[in-house]
């Protein structure tokens, strides 16, 4: 029996001894990839490159330009950053390090301890990071009994991780170490520090931005783009989490087990309602007539618009909902994307001239026939619906282009009030592991699409990258144009979504292209205890996705 195996990739073959590390195999095929390979794919599952090849077969690879590879790069960069920060600060001077939230291409982090995050100090930390990169030190993965890890967390004064593993059902935990510094990370890592060449450290507010490449340009660190409106909204969310005593998944699970979850739900809902009331008050005081609501997919725009309308009615106003989708061009006139598919995401898919004409006529007091778009026939229809604005009427206009000034170019700026809404979760897995706001929205969409459209989880996952591409092009660039940002994320929502999302994700066969992403989400959901929808308020934004809302969503 031969001691060699044959590995194939993209039609090419590589013969090597059994037990050869995947890192060695990857180096052979690296010339066929544009960016550094950091993970392998074997039997439909991701593998880190320290694993070995024991039998012949097909192996795929993920680079830092692919989704899983880019995520591995980011996690590993945090390990490098924390290790270097501790090295430069000295023993015992770092009491707490927390990854707060993403801000553009970077992550805002805070440090508690006997250090000042000056430019000089951070320059030394960056130098240390670069030194470790040049040394190309291995990032070592080791598995330990969960009880042993729990005790270790206590000795290291890591209560967030101790709480997390208190609810861990598996018998072992994978830990990662770099040059003697050990930590826990949710997800896969790159093999060694030599892969982590691209980063920057930027002092910002009371913390520091760890700036990293985007997936689209994985070998370039983009300049930091300040987003004060987004930062303020995200920071408010972290303050709410601190006030509620729920900053990590372990905190949330404790809340569920102790029977305090209903109190948490009601408090969070009250905080959101107060924020909506504040926005309504500002609209009335500033005498705005056109309220433009925009945000990415599954951000809760519809429920938010209804709740805002209720608050406006409490001020004596008469709000009218207008969906920009009703201004789509006839299907025969709809632009097509680079793949030849109808592009409903671009601004040119809307009858911008017709929208401006109707809105200007309404502002001048004229009666206007309002259109309805028929998605089955691809035609705009007029069913006798008319609208005329009086002094107490306001229009709540919802659509992805609401913040783009080109959409409403003929309307006087002083008549418009722009609202950006997104689900910006403040919850962490633990202090070193962020929960992606994108994952929160994806879980919302999985559940809603299955409930309202009969769409499979594979279908929703398969189109998600296209949705994200449209958001990056048509929504995110305009978010700082907003007069106000509203965070629709609820700190308790993932335990609610869990019971609906898990069966959908389990239905995806391992042969499907979406299987790896489904597996990742299923592993993520294992951190959470589930909660029932029984006690959720009927006007909660989560109801838009799980059902049972007062509103027609």
Folded structure, characterized:
This protein is of the alpha+beta class. The chain has 3 domains: 4-63, Beta-grasp domain (Ubiquitin-like (UB roll)), CATH 3.10.20.30; 69-226, Threonyl-trna Synthetase, Chain A, domain 2 (Threonyl-tRNA Synthetase, Chain A, domain 2), CATH 3.30.980; 230-546, P-loop containing nucleotide triphosphate hydrolases (Rossmann fold, 3-Layer(aba) Sandwich). Helices cover 37% and strands 22% of the residues. The chain contains 15 helices and 26 strands. The strands form 9 sheets. The protein has a 5-stranded parallel sheet with strand order 17-22-16-23-26. Strands 9-10-15-14 form a 4-stranded antiparallel sheet, sandwiched between helices. It has a 3-stranded mixed sheet with strand order 2-1-7, covered by helices on one side. A hairpin with a 2-residue loop joins β9 and β10 (106-113). The longest helix has 25 residues, at 261-285.
Radius of gyration: 25 Å
The overall strand count is: 26
Low-confidence stretches: none
Quote the average pLDDT.
Answer: 95
The CATH class label of the largest domain is Alpha Beta
Task: Quote the distance from N terminus to C terminus.
Answer: 63 Å
Shape: globular
Strand content: 15-25%
What is the number of helices? Answer: 15
Largest sheet composition: 5 strands, parallel
- Biggest sheet strand order reads 17-22-16-23-26
Helix content estimate:
25-40%
The CATH superfamily of the largest domain is known as: P-loop containing nucleotide triphosphate hydrolases
The name CATH uses for the topology of the largest domain is: Rossmann fold
Which CATH architecture of the largest domain is right?
A: 3-Layer(aba) Sandwich
Supply the number of structural domains. Answer: 3
Structural class, judged by helices and strands?
alpha+beta
């Amino acid at each position: 029996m031969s001691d060699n195996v044959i590995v194939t990739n993209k039609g090419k073959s590589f013969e090597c001894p059994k037990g050869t590390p995947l890192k060695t195999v990857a180096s052979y095929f690296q010339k066929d990839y544009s960016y550094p390979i950091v993970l392998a794919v074997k039997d439909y599952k991701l593998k880190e490159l320290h694993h070995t090849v024991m039998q012949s077969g097909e192996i795929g690879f993920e680079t830092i330009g692919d989704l899983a590879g880019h995520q591995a790069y980011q996690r590993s960069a945090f390990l490098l950053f924390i290790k270097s920060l501790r090295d430069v600060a000295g023993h015992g001077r770092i009491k707490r390090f927390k990854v707060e939230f993403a801000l553009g291409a970077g992550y805002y982090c805070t440090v508690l301890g006997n250090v000042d995050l000056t430019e000089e100090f951070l320059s030394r930390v960056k130098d240390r990071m670069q030194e470790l990169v040049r040394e190309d030190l291995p990032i070592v993965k080791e598995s330990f009994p969960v009880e042993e890890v729990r005790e270790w967390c206590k000795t290291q004064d890591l209560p967030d991780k101790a709480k997390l593993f208190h609810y861990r059902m598996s018998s072992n935990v994978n830990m990662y170490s770099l040059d003697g510094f050990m930590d826990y990370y949710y997800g896969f890592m790159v093999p060694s520090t030599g892969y982590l060449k691209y980063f920057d450290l930027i002092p910002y507010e009371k913390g520091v931005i760890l700036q990293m490449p985007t997936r689209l340009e994985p070998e370039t660190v983009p300049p930091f783009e300040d987003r004060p409106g987004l930062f303020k909204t995200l920071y408010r969310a972290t303050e709410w989490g601190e006030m509620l005593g729920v900053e990590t998944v372990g905190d949330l699970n404790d809340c569920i087990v102790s029977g305090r979850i209903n109190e948490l739900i009601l408090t969070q809902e009250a905080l959101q309602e107060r924020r909506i009331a504040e926005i309504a008050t500002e609209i009335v005081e500033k005498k705005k007539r056109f309220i433009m609501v925009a945000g990415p997919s599954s951000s809760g725009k519809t429920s938010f618009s209804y709740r805002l309308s209720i608050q406006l009615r409490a001020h004596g106003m008469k709000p009218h909902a207008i969906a920009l989708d009703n201004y789509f061009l006839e299907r025969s006139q709809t632009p097509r994307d680079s793949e030849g598919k109808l592009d409903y995401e671009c601004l040119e898919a809307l009858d911008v001239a017709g929208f401006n004409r109707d809105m200007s006529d309404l502002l001048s007091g004229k009666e206007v026939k309002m259109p309805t778009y028929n998605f089955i026939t691809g035609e705009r229809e007029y069913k006798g619906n008319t609208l005329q604005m009086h002094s107490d009427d306001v229009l709540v206009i919802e659509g992805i282009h609401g913040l783009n000034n080109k959409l409403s170019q003929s309307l006087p700026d002083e008549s418009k009030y722009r609202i950006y809404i997104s689900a910006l979760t403040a919850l962490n897995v633990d202090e070193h592991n962020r929960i992606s706001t994108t994952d929160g929205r994806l879980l919302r969409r999985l559940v809603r699409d299955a409930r309202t459209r009969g769409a499979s989880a594979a279908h929703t996952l398969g189109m998600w990258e296209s949705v994200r591409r449209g958001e990056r092009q048509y929504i995110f660039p305009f978010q700082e144009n907003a007069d106000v940002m509203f965070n629709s994320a609820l700190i308790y929502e993932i335990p609610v979504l869990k019971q609906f999302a898990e069966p959908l994700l389990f239905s995806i066969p391992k042969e499907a292209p979406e299987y790896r992403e489904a597996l990742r989400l299923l592993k993520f959901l294992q951190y959470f205890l589930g909660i029932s929808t029984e006690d959720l308020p009927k006007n909660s934004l989560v109801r838009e996705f799980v059902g049972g809302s007062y509103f027609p969503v």
